[in-house]
Amino acid sequence: MKPTTARLGLLGLAMALSACTTFTSEKIDYKSAAKAPTLEVPPDLSQLTRDTRYNVPGGVVSANALQAGQAAQAPTGAQTVISNAGDVRIERVGNERWLVISRPADKLWDPVREFWLENGFVMVKEDAKLGIMETDWAENRAKLPQDAIRAALGKVLDSFYSTGERDKFRTRLERRPDGGTEVYITHRGMIEVYSTQDRDSTAWQPRPSDTELETEFLRRLMVKLGLSQEQSQAAAASVRAAPAAPSARMDTVNNAPVVLLDEGFDRAWRRVGLALDRTGFTVEDRDRSRGIYYVRYVSPGEQKPKGFFSRIFSQGGEVADPVKYQVQVRSEGNLSTVSVLTSAGVPETSANAQRIVRVLTDDLK
């Protein structure tokens, strides 16, 4: 896309002043991208929306409990760490974190929805039956430089003063067998970069998911659900120092691409679910007893270009009919294999299978 001369000038001015301005990166102050100016993006950068079933099939991973505020040091990436406070606790396995709440999911839906609205987001997907809600793309305005230049520009030109980053969050509520609820928050990010050597145009491209930002929103949600700031900060601090997760690697089994994980089924199943949340798949169903996620996938080459906000910063967009696949997790001891099957359950060897396995591998590393 080609930005206006005024916008490019302000972008250049902001970059020139970046060395002498102070950014409030510690703060969070989101503004929905639905209120920002329309942009364009190459069609091959579009990503899919995702769904996940509401109920948790099977049991939960056993864990060693720690008191809130106690530093949690896990000797291996496979150990679960728990920090309790009231009827809300935060758990961690490796780099994944989530909340476990001793309340039924239907009692949490409205408070969780209010939480995102209070934090400046617009909801673009809400499905209480599936336990899924997703925000619009939004900008963290607290990352803008707080200086005299911005003050001089004022609100009249505020829409041109941008961080060049957008964030989207998905929240998944899953029922537990004990009547409680697990809450997962996953982040997706986009960043605006110059697309030409002359810096006369820009484009948006995906940036890595921010697990620390996910943890911060889990902490803030704990406050929304009744904990004090001190309790939530102690709980979040106890699970922040996570060891590196076991790495994933691609391989081939019977001419079909697979992901290999050096971990048992419980953790592999959870991690693959989070990876599907973060990387743009629609999960229509799941069968934990068989280790299968039922997903819909649209190849990037099959997507039809549309305007930026209707196709990237929202869920709209005209795309080709998605293809249904099964993503299967099979484990033997501490080794798990993640493979892509056709809708009929036959190993898939197509280029789409290669893409899916590569995307999952990159997120699971």
Automatic annotation (TrEMBL):
Residues in the signal sequence: 1-19
Query: What keywords appear on the UniProt entry?
Result: Signal
**Keyword flag Signal:** yes
Record flagged with keyword Signal = yes
Pfam families, sorted: Lipoprotein_18 (PF06804)
Q: Under what name is this protein listed?
A: Outer membrane protein assembly factor BamC
InterPro entries, per this entry? BamC_C, NlpB/DapX
Q: Which organism is it from?
A: Comamonas endophytica
